[in-house]
Amino acid sequence: MTILVTGARGNVGRRVLQRLYAAGHSLRASGRNPAELDVPEGVETVALDLNDPETFVPALAGVSKVLLYAEPDGIVQFLDEAEKAGVESIVLLSSNTVALPGADEDPLAHHHKVVEEAVVASGLTYTILRPGAFMSNAFGWSYSLQAGDTIDQVFPEAQVAPVHEDDIADVAVVALTEKTLQDQVVDLTGPESLTFRQELEIVGEVLGRKLVVNGLTREEGEAQMSNFVPPPVLTSLLNQWEAAVGVTADTSATAERITGKPARTFRQWVEEHAAFLA
Ligand SMILES: NC(=O)c1ccc[n+]([C@@H]2O[C@H](COP(=O)([O-])OP(=O)(O)OC[C@H]3O[C@@H](n4cnc5c(N)ncnc54)[C@H](OP(=O)(O)O)[C@@H]3O)[C@@H](O)[C@H]2O)c1
């Protein structure tokens, strides 16, 4: 009864792997280049590119459950091979963008929606996790924090309810190891709605620095972020943030209800990652 953890190098997959390992499960970790994976001792690694069907059969042999990252190209073949291999259930890391207004025209939402629909149509048991913005997006400020105290931010008054990757991983582990979340869609948010400006205030307080937020126009933000964010994703993000200016982000107690622990706060995330942020 091996659990395949795709995205084992990712913010969520890495944490899921650590938790399942600590609980003694039989595990296989995958990445497009398994040599890059840093896994606990004794965990098997395998090459899996979700866009390359030739890699599917060896990765799925003997697997009963999969933590799946959302990659639309190849998803139908992947799920076919999963069924043939005897996989019982899929836990999909999707995104709350699927449920936002305008999702049908949004490239980021479309990316996840295609995979969600394929998973539901596959007939396999599933859990779809739909987190909102990850707290680790704050690493996007690292470069500016290393350069000085003035931080550029487009739409600084946009509100998000960032979710801690440990909470996503805790919920994913419940989905992979218990039956309570079978055939459910699980929306996950952090515990509080914060503007980007408030997030940066918290970063400054934890780092003991007086940060100045330099608000950028959409065009300025687009020019700056296009250096490291692909164009369709960038448009999607800017649209989301523009729509979130002055709007309290929805928060839910779902993570707490499932894990039995209060959702971790953004301040806690910053305290844990302060050494890597700046
Ligand atoms: N950041 C957010 O605010 C946010 C919010 C909601 C949902 N999400 C979704 O969460 C996911 C990102 O999660 P994360 O932060 O944990 O990831 P991450 O740290 O950015 O890592 C990305 C992972 O995706 C894997 N991957 C990429 N292309 C792949 C492919 N073709 N085949 C197999 N694996 C592939 C990479 O594996 P290798 O490079 O090792 O192959 C890596 O492990 C995305 O689907 C994103 O849309 C993110």
TrEMBL record:
InterPro entries: Ergot_Alk_Oxidoreductase, NAD(P)-bd_dom, NAD(P)-bd_dom_sf. It holds the Pfam family NAD_binding_10. It comes from the Bacteria. Residues 7-178 form the NAD(P)-binding domain. This is NAD(P)-binding domain-containing protein.
